[in-house]
TrEMBL record:
Catalytic activity as recorded in UniProt: [protein]-L-glutamate 5-O-methyl ester + H2O = L-glutamyl-[protein] + methanol + H(+); L-glutaminyl-[protein] + H2O = L-glutamyl-[protein] + NH4(+)
Post-translational events: Phosphorylated by CheA. Phosphorylation of the N-terminal regulatory domain activates the methylesterase activity.
Keyword Hydrolase included in the entry's annotation: yes
Organism: Endobacter medicaginis
SMART domains found in the cross-reference section: REC
EC top class named in words: hydrolase
Gene for this chain: cheB
Gene3D superfamilies, A to Z: 3.40.50.2300, Methylesterase CheB, C-terminal domain
UniProt cross-references to PROSITE patterns, sorted A to Z: CHEB, RESPONSE_REGULATORY
Highest rank taxon of the organism: Bacteria
Family: Belongs to the CheB family.
The protein's name: Protein-glutamate methylesterase/protein-glutamine glutaminase
Residues recorded as bearing 4-aspartylphosphate in the entry: D55
Gene Ontology molecular function: phosphorelay response regulator activity; protein-glutamate methylesterase activity; protein-glutamine glutaminase activity
Length: 343
């Protein structure tokens, strides 16, 4: 059965490009188009589409305001269409926090194939599990005085749905959390914006990783968009960035990060695989478990897309599956030198 899509964008030219990209996929039917949120509202009522593609910037009501109302009154899968600019990145991150499933960037002169993966993202959005969005401005981290990190390093991988999932996990970390490395599939400019957003609302310091930076308590290092993040074992564990070819279609790749953690730290690590499409991370997490590390997978009920966690679980790489609301707390428990984790 075809995925029925409504295209919402104020530019007729952009609507034509989006419709052309979508109709190249035999499993997608574009059932309508709208030039502003008011037209979109009427079209949603009349057509009941499975998925909406939504422009961030539109007249009369911007895409974010429309998305917020839509998710409150009639939640449905939305794929944002964003500009690859400094202005577009924060709006896109905010859209993902409001409940959009995914985003694509508009084509540019230097990147004319910007809509090449739009059909796949729309199909994924149609299958995604919608979750009620939560306020993200008031995290409740564990109290520092009750936590003393052991020598464990945490490694987390995520993709589609990862903005909300990572926020839920990292907002539970105390300011003196264990050194943590993260790979989230995201373009460079958007990852820079996401890191800054997380740093503002979470207790630890959250930065994009740089080659050579040592892992320190109270620091969370995110893989920059477009570069693999690995650990090296020369003396103190340090970050290393790489422009090596894509793995599982991704750079950065969760598999690359997890495999380096298994080689470098063995049992002195915890691996976590969160919501995402595909199987990136399954092999690397399996190596971590074989090396003696504890591993956690997000459960199906709370995953926006139960792809990466499923692949890892079915491979036997996951020691324990947990809902996203419990993963941050569990990580704090098992890395606390002051108390032993409760099984």
């Amino acid at each position: 059965m075809s995925v029925r899509v409504l295209v919402v964008d104020d530019s007729p030219t952009m609507r034509r490009l989006i419709i052309h990209a979508l109709t190249q996929d035999g499993g997608i039917e574009v059932v309508g188009e709208a030039g502003d949120p008011h037209q979109a509202r009427a079209a949603i009522k009349a057509l009941s589409p499975d998925v909406i593609t939504l422009d961030v910037e539109m007249p009369s009501m911007d895409g974010l305001s429309f998305l917020e109302r839509l998710m409150r009154l009639r939640p449905m899968p939305v794929v944002m269409v964003s500009t690859l600019t400094e202005a577009g990145a924060p709006a896109t991150i905010r859209a993902l926090q409001l409940g959009a499933i995914d985003f694509v960037t508009k084509p540019t002169v230097g990147r004319p194939d910007g809509f090449a993966d739009l059909p796949a993202r729309v199909r994924t959005a149609a299958r995604a599990r919608l979750r009620q969005t939560r306020a993200l401005s008031a995290p409740t981290p564990s109290a520092d005085h009750a936590f003393e990190p052991d020598d464990t390093v945490i490694a987390i991988g995520a993709s589609t749905g990862g903005v909300e999932a990572l926020t839920a996990v990292l907002s539970r970390f105390p300011a003196n959390c264990p050194p943590t490395i993260v790979t989230q599939h995201m373009p460079p400019l958007f990852m820079t914006t996401f890191a800054a957003r997380l740093d503002r609302i979470c207790a630890p310091s959250i930065v994009e990783a740089e080659t050579g930076c040592p892992l320190r308590v109270g620091q969370v290092y995110l893989a920059p968009g477009g570069r693999h993040l690995e650990l090296t074992s020369v003396g103190q564990p340090r970050c290393r960035l790489s422009d090596a070819p894509k793995v599982n279609g991704h750079r950065p790749s969760v598999d690359v990060m997890f495999a380096s953690v298994a080689r470098t730290l063995g049992p002195r690590a915890v691996g976590v695989i969160l919501t995402g499409m595909g199987n990136d991370g399954a092999e690397g997490l399996s190596r971590m478990r074989e090396a003696g590390a504890e591993t956690i997978g997000q459960d199906e009920a709370t995953s926006v897309v139960y792809g990466m966690p499923r692949a890892a679980f079915e491979r036997g790489a996951v020691c324990r599956q947990l809902p996203i609301e419990r993963i941050g707390e569990r990580l704090v428990q098992i890395t606390n030198a002051m108390t032993k984790a409760v099984p």
